[in-house]
Amino acid sequence: MSAEATSPGAPIRRRGRPRIDLRRLGRVALLGPVSRDRLPDAIGHVAEAHRAHYPDADLSILRRAYVLAESSHRGQMRKSGEPYITHPLAVTLILAQLGAETTTLTASLLHDTVEDTDVTLDQVRDQFGKEVCYLVDGVTKLEKVDYGAAAEPETFRKMLVATGDDVRVMSIKLADRLHNMRTLGVMRPEKQARIAKVTRDVLIPLAERLGVQALKTELEDLVFAILHPEEYERTRALIDAAAARSEGSGAARQDPLAAIAESVTTVLREAGIPAEVLIRPRHFVSVHRVGVKRGELRGTDFGRLLVLVGEDADCYAVLGELHTCFTPVISEFKDFIAAPKFNLYQSLHTAVVGEDGAVAEVLIRTHRMHKVAEAGVIALGNPYAADSGTGPQPAEPADGERADPTRPGWLSRLLEWQQSATDPDTFWTTLRADLAQDREITVFRTDGGTLGLPAGASCVDAAYAQYGDEAHNCIGARVNGRLATLGTVLSDGDTVQLLLAEDAASGPSPDWLDHARTPAARIAITGWLDAHPEDTQRPHVGRPAGTGPGQHGHARPGPQPQQTTGSGPATAASAVADRPDAPVRLAGCCTPVPPDAVTGFVVRGGAVTVHRLECPAVARMRSIGRTPVGVSWTDSTECRVTLVAESFGRPRLLADLTEAIATADAAIISATVEPPSEQRVRHTYTLQLPDAAGLPALMRAMRDVPGVYDVSRAKHRAATV
Questions:
Q1: Three-state SS at 524
Q2: What are the C-alpha distances in Å from 328 to residues 282, 324, 332?
Q3: Under a CB-based contact definition with an 8 Å cutoff, are residues 5 and 78 in contact?
Q4: What's the rounded Cα separation, in Å, for the pair 152 and 150?
């Protein structure tokens, strides 16, 4: 994928990771295809790495894929002068070393053929099957000539949608980007920076979410070197100095991490626990982060101890021995075996203090956990084949849709919200923001289901995750059995029950955007607000409970006017305006009902808002020169009104008030109760009455409730219209 050449000025790479000799491979590639009875020398590295994970793998398909790729790319050169075939070879070797199965390696060898040569997808399908064709198509870029500036975001959208059906698509893309980042040195500095930023904002978070730590850490170091060269050089100097100290004379005395590793090995051997104790060096970015956090690096900060065992139970046995024989740092203990991370990661984390006071971080995991921690979804092999080392064996359910057993919950949510983000800029911006949220929580629904949400998600996010667009009618929530505002931030393990209003005309408030963390919620709320600009002018419409001034509880205050349009006078409830074809709305600030004296004003969008004559908004409208519109009541008797009850605080007051309202045959649309102030409590109710004539009797019944000293119609300042 437009891979570039190496440069002497390229950043230093991590030690210990095998590299293929590009120049030797270039010479081999130029020799052209070999006889059918032997494997081309150019992919000998790939074959060796692949057989290490899959000893019985059939390599003939790799030979055929290499022959097609080499012949197709022949004559194409990288900017370094190397034959282009060296790029797909290097990408395939990266995947082979991580344990990718044969199908993935085949597609990796061919991943640029459709994009950069005359090979077509039909040819790939005919020669290598549907699975390989799907993977190659998934990583093929969209043409800039067709999409212009939207080519990059739309390419990523296409790739993510393909990843939703097969995570191996993103595995190939990550390996492709890693090799391109390794060989980015010949690019112009500004282009290096642009590619590095996209890698930082999109590819590295995707590698983290897919659990491919081996690719993620090296990508982080390469991006660090390009975007922060000074910090990179300082960190590199610190690591080199630490390495020089450990390799010098008396290394055992100068390297505290090695001393603790030796002690741990002795303790586990004496306990009869078969284990392998390794020193795992931190990568550049990790060392830099530790330095920023602690200010001054200690000798043990340049690496961590890795203890590998055979069984899950051995992990806890090792933990017990370490906490018994060493002083543990309890705050550093984390159990990701009992509660794995959302990216498949499992391990025990702890820290112990050595004899000289040095603190060493320790990772404890089985060999299989370690493989998954390094390679993530790549280590799972082909999710569609019983034997993932023998080639593609697709499994498709009867409906023809492939259900990927490795698809994580965050990817499913991403695929859902991207359908609503039709604009490429919105998709690109939202994708980066979504991927920046690198932790996930699980909350439980009262029906027994679960919701996976990013850390920091609120009840607003839970509502849209559970109900989609129906969440526009959400008026509150119960979290762990207690009433909570929609802005309440959820914690891992919470139980949440979302409360929806029966009024389908309800809608969200702009305030909800302050609490929304998930793209699905933000896109849905923004879409509703854009489609109903006039509703954003009314105070309290769809406001999450507790977010507005003086609001407490779980119900949405304020009325939800009805609207009808057509020839002749327009109506809202039983109001008629002297302005043909204009929609009519009852003001939320004074909630007029028959037989109130009313007037109206034209607001944005051409609607007429109806106010009571004594409403403060009327005087304000007239003071700025707004012309009133005549309004009259029809014979319809049903109405909606907002009442404010002032009372002294006492037990069962709320129950008695709601009973009085129900006895008067009024329906409670929403209710809020403010916190007590000087033993006084203020209740606000929005009620639906079957007959406006019953309003005086209802207000008297509410005043008769012990402790209530006043009941009045709502009067508050209206929003600017």
A1: helix
A2: 21, 8, 8
A3: yes
A4: 6
Catalytic residue among 41, 115, 404, 691: 115
pLDDT digits over 557-608, tens only? 333 333 333 333 444 456 778 877 778 887 777 778 777 888 888 877 677 8
115 is catalytic: yes
Between helices 459-467 and 519-531, what is the axis angle to 10°?
80
pTM of the model: 0.65
- Compute the half-sphere exposure of residue 426: CA atoms within 13 Å on the CB side of its CA: 14
User: Which residue among the candidates 4, 101, 116, 374 is catalytic per the annotation?
Assistant: 116
**Displacement of CA 417 from its chain's centroid (Å):** 10
Question: How far is residue 637's CA from residue 646's CA, in Å, rounded to a whole number?
Answer: 27
What stretches of 501-607 adopt beta strand conformation (E)? Answer: 571-572, 575-577, 584-586, 598-602
User: Tokens 């995947």 label which residue?
Assistant: 95
Three-state SS at 531 = helix
Q: Which of 506, 514, 513, 516 is nearest to 556 (CA)?
A: 506
Sheet holding 482-484, edge to edge: 450-454, 440-445, 495-500, 474-479, 482-484
% of the chain beyond a pLDDT of 70:
80
pLDDT tens readout for residues 679-708 = 678 888 888 888 777 888 888 888 888 878
Cis peptide before 595 (omega within 30 of 0): yes
How far, in Å, CA of 508 to CA of 587, rounded? 17
Give the sign of the dihedral formed by CA 75, CA 79, CA 81, CA 82. Answer: negative
* Measured distance CA(680)–CA(674) in Å, rounded: 9
Q: Which residue has the tokens 């039709």?
A: 422
**In sequence order, which residues have a C-beta less than 8 Å from that of residue 34 and are 6 or more positions away?**
40, 41
Length of the chain, in residues: 721
- Distance in angstroms (rounded) separating the CA atoms of residues 154 and 422: 10
Instruction: Cite the beta strand spans of 318-473 per DSSP E.
Output: 327-328, 334-335, 348-353, 359-366, 440-445, 450-454
What is the rounded CA–CA span in Å between residue 600 and residue 606? Answer: 12
Residues 253, 90: Cα–Cα separation, whole Å: 41
Helix 189-198, helix 213-227: angle, nearest 10: 140
- Beta-strand ranges (E) seen in 233-340 are 276-281, 303-309, 327-328, 334-335
d(CA 375, CA 210): 9
The CB density around residue 37, as the number of other CB atoms within 10 Å, is 6
Q: Examine the residue annotation and report whether 247 is marked as an active-site residue of this protein.
A: no
Take residue 630 and report the two structure tokens written for it: 């005549």
**Judging by DSSP bridges, how do beta strands 359-366 and 303-309 pair with one another?**
parallel
Whether the Cβ atoms of residue 327 and residue 353 lie closer than 8 Å to each other: yes
